[in-house]
Amino acid sequence: MNRSSEVGNVGPSINDVSQIDEIDMQMYQENVIDHYKNPHNKKEMDDFTIKHKETNPLCGDEITLFLKIDKGIVVDVSFVGDGCAISQASISMFSDKLKGMSVEDAKGLEDRDVFDLLNIPISHTRIKCAMLGLKTLRKGLEENKNA
Amino acid sequence: MELLEKMFKDKFAIFENQKKLNSKKPFVYLDSAATSLKPKVVVDAIVDYYNNYSANIHRGIYDISDKTTIEYEKVRSVVSGFINCSSEEAIFTSGTTDSLNGVSRMLEPKIGNEDVIILSMAEHHANIVCWQEVCLRKGAKLVYVGLDDNGAIDIDDLKSKFDEFGSRAKVVSVSHISNVLGVVNDVSLICKLARECGAISVIDAAQSICHVKIDVKEIGCDFLAFSGHKMFGPTGIGVLFGREELLLELEPFRYGGSMISNVELEKSSWAELPNKFEGGTANIAGVIGLGAAIKFIDSVGIGKIHEHGREILDYAKEKLLGVGGVKVYGGLDSSLKIPIVSFEVKGVHPHDVAQILSNHGVCVRAGHHCAQPLVKSFGVNSLTRASFQIYNTKEDVDKLVEGIRKALEVFK
User: Fold this and answer.
1) What is the nearest CA distance from A54 to chain B, expressed in angstroms?
2) Is B210 one of the annotated active-site residues of the chain?
3) In the predicted model, is pLDDT for residue B59 greater than 90?
4) Residues A24, B359: C-beta atoms closer than 8 Å
5) Residue in B closest to A61 by C-alpha
6) For residue B149, what are the β-bridge partners?
7) In what order do the strands lie in the sheet with A50-56?
8) In the predicted model, what is the mean pLDDT of residues A46-70?
9) How confident is the model at residue B61 (pLDDT cuts 50, 70, 90)?
10) Helix (H), strand (E) at residue B173
11) Looking at residue B72, what is its pLDDT?
12) Which of A49, B186, B236, B293 is an S-S bond match for B232, by CB 3.0 to 4.6 Å?
């Protein structure tokens, strides 16, 4: 299933040039800047069940995601990494959402869920930034099917 | 200067077309180091070929094939004149990457497991990965020369590498100008040192070809690679210059039609230079476009392009230094470099800088710029890069600076 094809109406168009400053503010809303500057769950984890690192080879962004799983439930989440506001705010918000989720539900997460969390306009090129956290989760779960 | 730039903008349809598409958003193109915009004369030449004489070259005994062959070979002499080599020494490729891959393949039989290949820390991935693969296949070693305080290849370090490895140093392959730093390397001296050591010199001229006069004899290189699309030409076309003596001796790297003189069931023999290295149907429209691009450069004058770049860089230096929180890599000294400015904005990730600039109509690039070892050596994963060409104005620099201030404000 090509879940990354779900592009499209992810917020106001960035080609709406009449109010450029407003577009800056829409893309970089306070909560995005907040998560970027003060990310949630950004730390290493020692007693992880799954640790997985993904990079965005085109831009060098990287995320290492740690998951602690107990009886099919994601009981703890953390991450470390480096990247733009979109990728870092995305994984920060996403890590909050993952906590307490069942592994099955986590496997079912879609691009749309990340767009909904961010709720900002994202251009085609930057979808990869927004999706890096989800990509790390998917690959991490795939490679650790028995976890 | 402004009048001159207006004149140049008029030669590129994209400015007018972008304005029609979106009259409210400015179009400030500062990504010419990735690819330059295309003047109308280049697009027209390509369309003319496809509309009026789109035959294949060589051996078509009819009028339009004859014309195509003539036009195609005319471009070869235009290219030869442009870099001061003979027509036999100018091989058409698909671009710098293809040229460098080709030369690495050609030289591979000369590399033994005791040998070293010397690169610099400022190379584009195109001039790293193909040599890594040669080394992996042959058991040879890659050696990287460092940069001096200005961001140029450190000549003393290079000398020490030659002293250390002597005749084991088989190839030196370096960029004339780094695509991240924009600093001009002393390639004549580098090639002289290589020659004295018996090493073959390869120059990646992707960035320099459209900013400084290239004369392969003055540089004294054995090979030189460049792309059409960074010099106002189309994508998918490039050139590999090779010194005739070496081209005669070395084996082809691409087999197929056009590059043979005779094919038997078990073996074949090769065509004369330069066809020996041009297997398969060429990118004919690309060659025609490249010819038009070189004519365009000649009509402007490479000296004028260089001078314009210096003025823009001097202006950018003045303006950027006025913005707190901007750190430039590779300096802003126009006597040492071409107008490529890679920078960091304090507290704002390069992608976000580029995004906010994009929101304001300013096109720049952010990332590792296909030079991960270099960018990582600065202790960062990415940089924002603005690069300029003849169609850029001081007003464009103002727009860049305005956008950077905006980024600082958004992330304050």
Assistant:
1) 14
2) no
3) no
4) yes
5) B381
6) none
7) A50-56, A61-70, A73-82
8) 92
9) confident
10) strand B169-175
11) 97
12) B293
Note the pTM of the prediction, 2 decimals.
0.92
User: What are B141's strand-pairing partners?
Assistant: B116
Q: CB B372 to CB A15 under 8 A?
A: no
Contact A83 B349 (CB under 8 A): yes
At A13, which amino acid appears? S
Query: In whole angstroms, what is the distance from residue B326 CA to residue A68 CA?
Result: 40
Q: List, for residues B255-297, the tens digit of each pLDDT value.
A: 999 899 999 999 999 999 999 999 999 999 999 999 999 999 9
CB B367 to CB A84 under 8 A?
no
Q: Is pLDDT at B249 greater than 60 in this prediction? A: yes
> What residues are paired with B90 via a beta bridge?
B241
Measured between alpha carbons, how far is A32 from B125 in angstroms, rounded to an integer?
Answer: 33
Q: What is the pLDDT of residue A125?
A: 83
C-alpha span between B313 and B318 (Å, rounded): 9
d(CA B230, CA B219): 20
Question: Average pLDDT for residues A13-19, to the nearest whole number?
Answer: 52
pLDDT in tens, A118-133: 998 888 888 999 999 9
Interface test with B, best of A22, A38, A82, A84 (most B CBs within 10 A): A84
Q: Please state the ipTM of this predicted complex.
A: 0.81
Query: Which of A17, A33, A122, A126 best tests the B interface by mutation, with the highest count of B CBs <10 A?
Result: A17
Positive or negative, the CA dihedral A10, A12, A16, A19 is negative
Query: Cα dist. B392→B224, B316, B406 in Å?
Result: 28, 12, 21
- 3-state secondary structure (DSSP) of residue B32: coil
Chain A contacts in chain B segment 20-39 (CB below 8 A): 22, 24-25
